[in-house]
Write a structure and sequence with these properties.
Two copies of one chain form a homodimer. Helices cover 33% and strands 25% of the residues of chain A. Chain A is of the alpha+beta class and 341 residues long. The first copy, chain A, has two domains: 142 residues, PurM-like, N-terminal domain (60s Ribosomal Protein L30, Chain: A, 2-Layer Sandwich); 168 residues, PurM-like C-terminal domain (Phosphoribosyl-aminoimidazole Synthetase, Chain A, domain 2, Alpha-Beta Complex), CATH 3.90.650. In chain A, the strands form two sheets. In chain A, strands 8-10-7-11-9-12-13 form a seven-stranded mixed β-sheet, with helices on both faces. In chain A, strand 1 and strand 2 form a beta hairpin. In chain A, helix 2 runs parallel beside helix 3 and helix 4 crosses helix 5. The radius of gyration of chain A is 20 Å and the shape is globular. The first copy, chain A, starts with 10 loop residues before the first helix and ends in a 10-residue tail after the last strand. At the A-B interface, helix 1, strand 2, strand 3, strand 4 and helix 3 of A face helix 1, strand 2, strand 3, strand 4 and helix 3 of B.
C-alpha cells in the first residue's frame, strides 16, 4: 500500500463502482446484484428482494433533535422504501445496533418501540439481528427482505426514450425540516431559546418520521402497471433521476412547473429565502418513489392524485435537463449526498 | 424515560430477550425468527436462511494486528458460519461499511480483496450493501443469505435427552491466538520489540483468518444426517452448549478428555500457564460447529475424523456439567462474550 488515493476523490458512487467492479456472480439464484435499490434472488416461484442500510450517529442523524422512537421508525422505513422501489413487498427485516455505555435499557426500548411501530404499520417481521457495544455513538444496520412475483421487479436501468417521469407525493419537505431543525439547534446553542416549530409539523414530520410508499406499489399491482424503471428519492431528485438515466443509457427533461410541493413547505422555503425547486432537486430524504412508465400507461397513472408526471425520458445524446417556469433550460447535475466530501 | 437501567445489568443475551420479547410474527413466510444463528424464510420449495453481524473497530477487532485483507475475509466467514450452523448453504451476502477519513481507497481495496477471497472460497455472491463515512473507526455489517431444503434447517432448540454432543475441528486455538497477539502488542508498545510469532501460525491463523465448516454441512447432506440441534462456537463452548441446552430445555454432560485440541495450540497454552480446557470453554471465535445427533447416528458420525463426540444430552433437571480428566464434576457456567460488561 504505497499509494494513497483519498476516498473523497472518488465520491460515494465512484467508490462503490470501484469496489464492486470485479464482482463475478456464482449462483444462478443471484438475479440482480449491486447497483440498484435492492438485490433480487430467485426462490423457485417467487423472487426475493434484499436491501441494507448503515446509519451512523453524527453522519446520518443527530440525536439532539431526533427522538429515539422516531429514529427506530425511520431506520426501518428507509429500508422498506428501497424494497418498494424494486416494486416488491417487504416481509422481514434484520436489525443490528451498536451503542456506547451512555445508553440505558430505557433508551433502547424507546428506539425499539419505533422499530416495532414501523413493523406493525408495514406488516413486516423482525427476524434477526445483532447487538454490540460501540466505542462512540449509535450505529444502526437494517437489512430488509421482500417478495415480488417472478420478473415483476423494477430496476433503475429500464427507462426508455419517451417514457413519462413520475414521482409520488411531495418533494423537498424533508430538507426543509432538516434546515429548520438545524437552525433551531443553532439558536438554542447560542441563546438557549427553545425551538419554535409552530406550524411546521409537516416538514419536521417528513424528516423525522418519513413513510415509505406502500400505497403506490399496491396501486401498481391493482392497476396492472409495471414501471419501466424506479428508485426512491433519498439523495435528491437530481441525483436520483441521474441514476436512472445513467443506468438506462437515456437522457431526461424535467419540468419545474410540474414539481409537487406541499403548500406549507413552499411557504416556509420562501420565508427562509430558499428556492423550493432547489430543495426538491438537492435535498433528499423524501422517500418518494421516482419512476418511469410507458406513455400508454398515462391514463392509468393520472387517476392517482398522489402521482405527478414531472417530465419525460429523452435520448442519451440530448443530456439531462430541467426546464424552468420561465422556460430556461438548465443541465441537471448530481448534488446529492456525498459523505466522503 | 425517568428510569435508567444499565444495559450491563441485563447482559447481551438478557438485552436481546428484553428487546425482542413482544415480537409478533405477521407473515406466514417467517418460519423462524430471532433467537438462533439465522432466521428461516419460506420461499415455496426452498427455504431461505438469513443472518447478520455488526463488527466494530476496537470492540470486535484491533487493526494494530489485523491486516485489512484478513478482516474482510473474516467478516464474511463469521456470517457464513451462522448460515452453516442452520444446516444451510450460503448463497449471497450484503456488506455495509463505515469508515473515517483516515482510510484510503487502497486500504478499502485491501479489505475488499479479503471479502472477495471469501466469496470465492465459499462460492457466495456479494449482491448489495451500503458505504458510509463514520465519525470514528471502521464499522462492518454483513448479512448472509442461504438456502436449505424444506424443513432441513437445524435450530438450537431440538436437542433430545441421550443425544450425542459433537463438535468439529479443534477448540480454543483462536483464543490462544488472541492472547499471543495481545501479549506481543503490549511488548511492542512497551519496548518496541517486533512480535515473535515463530511457530504459532496455527493459532494466529485461527484467530485472524478463520474458516467456516462448509465441509461438515456437506458431510451431513451426503451421509443423510440431520443434527437435532446446532450452533457455531463463537462465544466459547460453555456459552454455546448452554444456548442449546436452554433453548432445548435439556441438560448436558461434557467430558474434558474428549475435547479436541491442536497439539501446537495445547503446547502453547501450557507455555503461557493457561489451561487448554478453559480456553475451549470460554475462549470463543473458534467458528466450529457444535451439534447434537441421535445415538443411532453414531456409526455415521464416527467415520468423519473432523468430528469429536464430547458428551451427551441429559434431562434438564440434572443440570449442565463438565467431567474433568480427574473425574470431578463441575457445573458449566456461561463465560462467553459480554460486551456490555
Amino acid at each position: 500500500m504505497d499509494q494513497r488515493t483519498e476516498i473523497a476523490s472518488l465520491g460515494e458512487f465512484g467508490l462503490i463502482d470501484h469496489l464492486t467492479q470485479h464482482i463475478d456472480i456464482k449462483n444462478a439464484s443471484s438475479l440482480l446484484g449491486v447497483g440498484d435499490d435492492g438485490a433480487v434472488i430467485d426462490h423457485f416461484g417467487r423472487q426475493t428482494v434484499v436491501s441494507t442500510d448503515l446509519l451512523i450517529e453524527g453522519i446520518h442523524f443527530d440525536l439532539s433533535y431526533t427522538p429515539l422512537k422516531h429514529l427506530g421508525y425511520k431506520a426501518v422505513v428507509v429500508n422498506l422504501s428501497d424494497i418498494y422501489a424494486m416494486n416488491a413487498v417487504p416481509t422481514q427485516i434484520l436489525l443490528s445496533i451498536g451503542f456506547s455505555n451512555r445508553y440505558s435499557v430505557e433508551a433502547l426500548d424507546e428506539f425499539y418501540a419505533g422499530v416495532y411501530a414501523a413493523c406493525e404499520a408495514y406488516q413486516v417481521d423482525l427476524v434477526g439481528g445483532d447487538t454490540s457495544s460501540s466505542q462512540k455513538g449509535f450505529i444502526i444496520s437494517v437489512t430488509a427482505i421482500g417478495e415480488v412475483a417472478p420478473d415483476q421487479y423494477v430496476k433503475r436501468s429500464g427507462a426508455q426514450v419517451n417514457d413519462l417521469i413520475c414521482v409520488s407525493g411531495e418533494l423537498g419537505s424533508a430538507f426543509l425540516g432538516l434546515t429548520l431543525l438545524e437552525r433551531e439547534k443553532k439558536i438554542f446553542q447560542e441563546t438557549g431559546a427553545q425551538p419554535d416549530l409552530e406550524g411546521q409539523t409537516n416538514i419536521v414530520g417528513r424528516l423525522l418520521k418519513p413513510e415509505a410508499r406502500k400505497d403506490i406499489v399496491e396501486f401498481f399491482s391493482e392497476s396492472n402497471i409495471v414501471p419501466t424503471s424506479m428508485i426512491d428519492v433519498s439523495d435528491g431528485l437530481s441525483s436520483d433521476i441521474l441514476h436512472i438515466c445513467k443506468q438506462s443509457n437515456v437522457g431526461c427533461v424535467l419540468h419545474e412547473e410540474k414539481f409537487p410541493f406541499n403548500p406549507e413547505a413552499k411557504e416556509f422555503a420562501y420565508k427562509l429565502q430558499l428556492d423550493p425547486t432547489a430543495c426538491a432537486l438537492s435535498g433528499g430524504e423524501d422517500y418518494e418513489l421516482l419512476f418511469t412508465v410507458a406513455q400508454s400507461d398515462y391514463e392509468k397513472i393520472k387517476v392517482n392524485p398522489s402521482i405527478s408526471v414531472i417530465g419525460y425520458i429523452a435520448p442519451e445524446s440530448e443530456g439531462n435537463h430541467l426546464i424552468t417556469r420561465a422556460g430556461n433550460k438548465h443541465a441537471l447535475v448530481a448534488q446529492g449526498w456525498n459523505h466522503a466530501r
